Amino acid sequence: RDLAVTYQATNQIEKALHELEEWKRLDNLLVGQENPLAAQALDALQKRDFDTVIELQRRLIKQTEDESGDVQSRRMNLTNTLEIVGDWRGLVTVCDQILRDAPKEPTEDQRLALVKARLVRGEAQLHLGKLAPAATDFAQVIVDAETLKHGDLVLRGQLGNGRIAAEQGDHARAVRILRAALPAWIASRPSRFTLGEAQFAYAR
């Protein structure tokens, strides 16, 4: 399941669907019938009916809230789908909720999820032209990701800063940041969409 979510987050939809099918098979074998809403969301994802996926994911979040379950992981799943369809305002709203409801003493996995939520919020704000809040998010992402020794997230924060500099017309700074970060970013084999955005900012 985690592998499927990772593939989905990097827009590798075919691989995500394959792993989701395997998860569904194993989950039914080992645990029994899965959550009906989750099963419907999986079917909608296989049909690439993302509007239905989003609706079902929101219902799963509400259900999990009512049952006092792990609502944060449900919200993170929703951010992946919102990012695929480019719903930047919705993405900011969900990330706000994730960060607002962060546990006071998060585990390392939870800390990593919070860094990812802040990064995604920064990237969504950048798409919306909100450069100042995006810059704040990217700066915090870099600090937190360095603490967690998560180089990929550090790079994404740096690339965000480069794109902000490009949008602000500070071309020398943008070139300096992106030239330093892009080789390592390319080596990490990111999604083509994210890599394309970074290369386009550098080309500009």
Q: What would you say this structure looks like, in words?
A:
The protein has 204 residues and is an all-alpha fold. It is built from 11 helices and no strands. 81% of the residues lie in helices and 0% in strands. α3 packs antiparallel against α4.
Q: Secondary-structure map with pairings?
A:
Layout: H1 2-9, H2 13-30, H3 36-46, H4 50-66, H5 71-85, H6 88-100, H7 108-127, H8 131-147, H9 151-168, H10 171-187, H11 192-203
Helix pairs in contact: 1-2, 2-3, 3-4, 4-5, 5-6, 5-7, 6-7, 7-8, 7-9, 8-9, 9-10, 10-11
Q: Termini distance?
A: 38 Å
Q: Could you list the spans in which at least 5 consecutive residues all have pLDDT below 50?
A: none
Structural class: mainly alpha
Q: How many DSSP H or I helices?
A: 11
The main β sheet shows up as:
none
SSE order: HHHHHHHHHHH
The level of helicity is over 70%
Shape: globular
Tally of extended strands?
0
Tell me the fraction of residues in β-strands, as a range: under 5%
Rg measurement, Å: 18 Å
Mean pLDDT: 84
